[in-house]
Structures are given as C-alpha cells and as structure tokens.
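ok here's AraC family transcriptional regulator, positive regulator of tynA and feaB:
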Amino acid sequence: MTILRAEIAGRFDGWLHDVNQVCGHFDAQCLGEGFSGSIREHQTGALRLSFVDITQARLFRSSKEIAQSDCKHFYLVSQLAGRAGMEQAGNCVEMQPGDITLIDSSVPNNFLYEDSSRQISLILPRHLLEQSRRFTEVHCAQRIPASAPMAAMANRLILESTQQGALSVSESEATLEALVSLLRPVLCASDSVPDAHERLFRKTLRFIDEHICSEELCPEAIAREVGVSMRGLYRMFAKKGLVVAQYIKNRRLDFCAETLRQAGSEQKLSALGYEWGFTDSSYFSTAFKARFGVSPSDYRKRYSGR
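and the structure:
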C-alpha cells in the first residue's frame, strides 16, 4: 500500500510540474488513489492551447500562484469529455461535454475533477478581450452550453486549428480574433438599459477615444470633462477592474497595433507613436512589446506579407 501511494504521489507531482510548465503556476490536491493526469501542449504561431486529462484531482490558483505569474491572459476552457467543476469570483459552473467557459488568470480559481475529464485550455491574450469589452464586463466562470450555436462553432474552430499544418503568426492571431468575435455576445454581454453609473462610464470611454491622440489626455482632464472627482473617476474604473492611466495607454497601443496591421503601413514608428499620444519613442517601443510580446517593427513584419 505504501509503495502504491508513493507511486501515485510521484505521478501526481510529475503531472503538476507539467501543468505549471505549460499553463503557469497552479497548486493541486490529489483526491484519491484513482488519480491520473496528463497534459499535451499544442502551439502554432500565436495559438497556444493544451489538452488536459484529469481524474480525481483539484487544481487551483491562489494569490500566491498569481503573484508568480504574469497573468496577461484568460483561459478559454472547452470540455471535451467527462465533467468538471469550475469556480471563480463566487461563480460556480459544472462543465459537461461541449460546454465552454472563460477563466481569468489574474483572479483566484478552483477546478474540481472528481471523475474522468478531458478539456482543451486555450490561452487568450488579455488585450483581445479588453478591446472587445470596452463597454461591458467580461463574464468569467459562466457556462456557455454545448447547445448554444456559438459554443458549437467555437469548438469546431478550436479543434480545426489543431488539425491544420503550421499556422503563421498572423493566421493564428486571426483565429484568436475570430474566437473572441464569435463568443463576444456571451462573454461580454451587457444590459440593454444601462444605469446612470454605466452611462457615465460609457461617456468617459467615448471621451477618451475622441481625445486619445492628445498629449493633454490625463485623468485630471477626464474627470473635469465628465464632471466627477478624481477619486470618483478612479473608483468608477476600479469597479471594472481597470486603472485609468493603464487603460489610456492600452487604448493607444491598440490603435497603434491596428495601424501596423493595415496593408501598406510604412509610417516611421516614432511618428506612429507620437500620432497616438506617445511622446517618448523608447517608452512606446517598451510598452508595445510588454502588451503584444514583440516590438512594433516585428509586429508590422507579421502582417506585411498578407
């Protein structure tokens, strides 16, 4: 019995090590002698996903594991077989074959696999969701049922992407963008009649976009324009999980990236950054690479051959 338990513990530790290598820092708990687990990574271009098989284990991420990770992404989880329990921010969902859910890597989570389960976990860059959610909340740990047409089409697209030959970076990024567009109605659903606070928030975002190129755009100017105190402005963004200055910077970077993706874009990078409100070309390059993983010049090269 002791030898058997040592063997299980060895398999469990090896599996958790593999999970941390592929998916980032997690902790886990073995739930019984029937434990088994494996993970297989698939990467092509910007598309990173893994096939995860688990039986009798609990996988979780606490503030400790979050502090050890970059948290620049979401996990789009598709249940292929078996069942699993997914929990985050007070939301609990039982995943069944064909179901999809979204998990935020920067928020504590808890996954329970009491029986055999097989999932695909797709890494979805945070900036793709931020671009699409400007007026809405992103709904994490919410079950998108297999019966929903969007779930069926998204699952088909994910599986097809793993069966193709090597995708270029631009092709794989287009696949990720297509997935976000496909699932946006359910991942970023908004109320049809927003309350006064939501209307004010939307007004604030519109003002930011209208003045995004201005060097004068700053939290003080925004608060003055929309008629709130600085504290009220910070609180309004904090409720959405955002920081005002960071949001402005990310919007500028998103517009820069959109320009670089356009065919025939030959504008000097320093001029491009300046056009969208970056007065320091070195800071622009550093910030761009931190958000998109590559320099502005390399990002443009990805799309120059389209």
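+1. The chain has a mean pLDDT of 85.
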